[in-house]
Amino acid sequence: MYKIKTLFFYFWVIFFVNILNNCTQNTNRVYFSISPELRQIIIPVHLNDSITANMVFDTGCGTYTYMLDSSFCASNNIHLNNPDTVILMGIGWMHKDYHSFIYNKCQGVRIGNVNLTYPNLNVFDWKGYYNSNHLDGMIGIPPQDTTHVWELNFEHNYLEIHPAEGFKMPENCFIIPVNGNYGYSFDVQFPMKIVCMDGDTLSMNHIYYVDTGMFYDIAVIYPAEEIEYFNKKGDAVWVRAAGGNGYSRYYTVNATLFNNISIDSLRIYTFDDPRRVNHKYLIGLNFLKRFNVFFDLKNHLTVFQPIKSFQRDVSSFYCRYHYSTRKTQDGKNKVSKIADYPGNYFKTAGLQKGDDIVAVNGLPYNNYSYDYLQYKSNTFIAALRDKKIIYEDGHFFKEDTLTYDIIRQGHPMKIVVIVDRNEARGD
């Protein structure tokens, strides 16, 4: 009996030691979540060993590899000296500028148990810029970090920072050399053959910018040569673009990547206007989620390990695109684009490009114009999701019938639009 108790005791000792060892071995690992509406990777980041910030992990940060919200700094008593630089900054997909304060002496940063060094800290109204109350900033991979391999594991939803020395990539991977200035971007080139819904085929072999902060599968941006090809297709789904104004169109295709891996239901988003990303081709979250991705900065490699399961992140935050306007020098709201698809009820009601929108339901058009970034994300997204508001061209409407007062070629007209609240949302 004594021997049995002793064996039983040692069994539990070994069991708990193994658990402790596993926990110790995995302290370089942090588990992430993906926000359901904004579709961004969220990780915990420790600042000065005492403050935890919920931050977006974004390889598209570029030179601004570490950003904090100014109100977060104030509420957590993060004291900063005078900034080294003050700039007027516009980031990525957004078309707004904010005054941003750059500090060259950064706060202590730790992910898991790995202490990291960033070249600068960027502080501005991050929450306002990105319309987010529950996130505190954004962080990427430090430029020139040759001592680690960063693993973004979508199979089990964790980020793990491995020591580069002696690290071996897993089997069955596609190893892609990095192009360009690796200190600031992750550019990979690989062949891709796509089959469109109408049976047409297209081969693409471009340099793609890996942007974990972008939810699109693949973004193709003007003046990319494929824009004209896709614009001739009749199966486009028009969606209001990230940032609230403008639009994108996506096309669902089947694709063969790296010469031998097949992917169905891949979405290619096209943008007819230039964006603030300085790249014509990008791959984002709903592409990357089909792999575990390794960033090997020491050897200038990005490695893709295919995984079996994939579930697309879809957000009800994004509405169908119907039309947009541009404001002229004399303050008029001229219709600059009408989406050309059969279900666009603004087009079938008679709204045309060039129309000057004066009023809606008797109120001046500008009365409905509120920068959506001023809305708190929880109330704004909930209102969109529950279809309590109609969001068009940066304007908000609550009625189901919208009577537009317009001027067309000098003549006043009325156009009555019946809102379809059952129209599909999300993408």
Model description:
The protein has 427 residues and is mainly beta. The protein folds into 4 domains: 1-27; 32-139, Beta Barrel (Cathepsin D, subunit A, domain 1); 148-306, Beta Barrel (Cathepsin D, subunit A, domain 1); 323-418, Roll (Pdz3 Domain), CATH 2.30.42.10. The chain has 7 helices and 31 strands. The chain has helices at residues 2-25, 70-75, 126-130, 226-231, 285-288, 345-349, 377-385; strands at 29-31, 33-34, 41-47, 51-57, 66-69, 85-89, 98-103, 109-111, 114-116, 121-124, 137-139, 148-153, 158-163, 174-179, 187-195, 201-210, 218-221, 237-240, 247-257, 261-271, 281-283, 291-296, 301-306, 323-327, 333-338, 356-360, 363-364, 390-392, 395-397, 401-408, 411-418. The strands form 4 sheets. Strands 2, 3, 4, 5, 6, 7, 8, 9, 10 and 11 form a 10-stranded mixed sheet that branches. A 6-stranded mixed barrel has the order 15-16-21-17-20-19. Strands 24, 25, 26, 27, 30 and 31 form a 6-stranded antiparallel sheet that branches.
